[in-house]
Q: What sequence folds into this?
């Protein structure tokens, strides 16, 4: 009787309306978003080289930071941008922000409001960092930067000529940056920075990408890609490393807090996978040779 | 001539750019024998020419969008009200952006100034729309996992196993569950297995695909340079 009931439930699961799944996911995510748990995190082999490289930068070193993402991928990539920018400023490096995406300028503005202004109010634009912004052309922009920064950008976002920016006083080409940090939500993005920026000039490229893009970019690691922050987990690992390095600063853990909902979503998807397949195997029944599917 | 000229231009520019990639010396300051100076000149300027052309592509793209949607509205084709929304949104954002409305000091100001209307449009409309659209993916993935990801074959079973390990290994739960394993079975840690799947089989597959694509692109490029691929000629 009990066995028959179990079989019935399994078969019923196969016909479950998808709206129940949506509701379960919605409730689980909602509860975790409110609870905001914070799990311990340790750096992976992909994240560690990026952190070490930024730690080794000399004070005043210019670092090219490409913000090639939009609000769609911001939940995963913006925490990386925040953590990396924070780290660069704490190291005394001078980030130079560019973007190959039209939305990149807006993402930079958000970064200003969320990190630059509240946490580093003494920084002066043009001296401690430079915001060059968006240029159309994708990989061709990178090619032009490889040749001559000023052939592509004559002024920063405020309209101040590049020659009068102390942050770019000794930088004329891409190979004069000790590091490129490319945060990428798609194309053009990290792949283009590796192939057209890092490879021809020998400049190390550190990357950040969405979780779904991580498997693709790992093909370039470690020879062509110094390190990779893969999705929310990569951002969370970096935040944790930064918090450990600067314990007195109370480094915000935006990605770390978001790992709770992501964990719940992953676990629920795994549960759906198992239940869906159990139901499928039950309905399909044994094969003629006596084996299951 | 109509077919020959585009092929000659394509081949000539292509060969010049390939030679430039090997012969140019960025940062040499224009010194050296004349072929190197030519390569340097092309290397320095070609990308700028391309970018100027790319800017004109924006104008063409905008004109094409306007034309297509206006035709749809005027001919009252199915779903034409959506075209009205597209046109109104397009023109409104274009005017706000080009005119740098709201941001001090007018046309000379920064387009991303917090007071600029474009930033208001971005923060109040574009951002929530994009976030909403992509948030829905979580629900579709959950539904697809339940209904479509089936153990239909051995290959599907391997894929499912890998997905299971990577999904769990990318969460703190994977590490926590692995901590329950006895020390002798540490090679079965889910986070370690997840890393192995990402670094070994995944990278092997990705690199194979990348190298295959690169070889294909090289072969296609050679065909175009040799004038044996008639893509340009056929369209003119």
A:
């Amino acid at each position: 009787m009990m066995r028959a009931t179990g079989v019935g439930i399994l078969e019923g699961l196969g016909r479950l309306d998808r709206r129940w799944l949506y509701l379960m996911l919605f409730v689980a995510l909602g509860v975790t978003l409110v609870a905001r748990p914070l799990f311990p995190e340790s750096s992976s082999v992909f994240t560690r080289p990026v952190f070490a490289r930024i730690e080794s930068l000399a004070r005043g070193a210019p670092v090219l930071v490409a913000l090639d993402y939009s609000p769609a991928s911001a939940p995963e990539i913006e925490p990386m941008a925040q953590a990396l920018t924070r780290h660069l400023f704490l190291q005394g490096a001078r980030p130079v922000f560019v973007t190959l995406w039209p939305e990149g300028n807006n993402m930079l503005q958000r970064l200003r409001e969320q990190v630059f202004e509240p946490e580093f109010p003494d920084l002066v634009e043009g001296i401690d960092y430079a915001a060059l912004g968006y240029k159309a052309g994708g990989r061709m922009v990178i090619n032009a930067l490889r040749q001559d920064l000023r052939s592509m950008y004559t002024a920063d976002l405020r309209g101040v000529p590049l020659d009068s920016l102390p942050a770019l006083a000794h930088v004329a080409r891409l190979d004069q940056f000790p590091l490129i940090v490319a945060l990428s939500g798609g194309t053009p993005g990290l792949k283009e920075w590796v192939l057209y920026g890092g490879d021809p000039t020998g400049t190390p490229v550190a990357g950040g990408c969405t979780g779904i893009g991580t498997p693709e970019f790992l093909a370039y690691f470690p020879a062509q890609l110094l390190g990779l922050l893969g999705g929310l987990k990569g951002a969370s690992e970096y935040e944790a490393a930064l918090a450990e390095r600067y314990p007195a600063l109370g480094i915000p853990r935006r990605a770390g807090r978001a790992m709770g909902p992501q964990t719940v979503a992953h676990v629920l998807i795994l549960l759906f996978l198992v239940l869906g397949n159990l139901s499928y195997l039950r309905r399909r029944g044994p094969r003629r040779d006596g084996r299951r599917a | 001539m109509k077919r020959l000229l585009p092929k000659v231009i394509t081949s000539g520019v292509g060969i010049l750019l390939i030679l430039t990639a090997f012969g140019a010396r960025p940062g040499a300051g224009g010194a050296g024998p004349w072929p190197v100076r030519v390569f340097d000149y092309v290397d320095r300027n070609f990308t700028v020419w391309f970018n100027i052309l790319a800017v004109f592509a924006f104008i063409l793209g905008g004109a094409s969008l306007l034309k297509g949607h206006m035709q749809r509205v005027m001919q009252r084709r199915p779903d034409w009200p959506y075209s009205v929304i597209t046109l109104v949104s397009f023109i409104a954002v274009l005017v706000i952006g080009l005119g740098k409305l709201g941001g001090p000091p007018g046309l000379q100001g920064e387009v991303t100034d917090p007071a600029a209307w474009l930033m208001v449009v971005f923060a109040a409309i574009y951002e929530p729309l994009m976030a909403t659209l992509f948030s829905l993916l979580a629900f579709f993935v959950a539904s697809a996992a339940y209904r479509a990801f089936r153990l239909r074959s051995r290959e599907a079973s391997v894929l499912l196993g890998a997905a299971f390990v990577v999904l769990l290994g990318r969460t703190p739960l994977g590490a926590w569950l692995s901590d329950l394993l006895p020390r002798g079975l540490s090679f079965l840690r889910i986070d370690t297995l997840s890393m192995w799947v990402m670094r070994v089989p995944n990278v092997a597959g990705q690199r194979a695909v990348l190298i295959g694509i690169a070889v294909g692109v090289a072969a296609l490029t050679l065909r175009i340079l040799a004038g044996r691929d008639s893509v340009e000629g056929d369209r003119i």
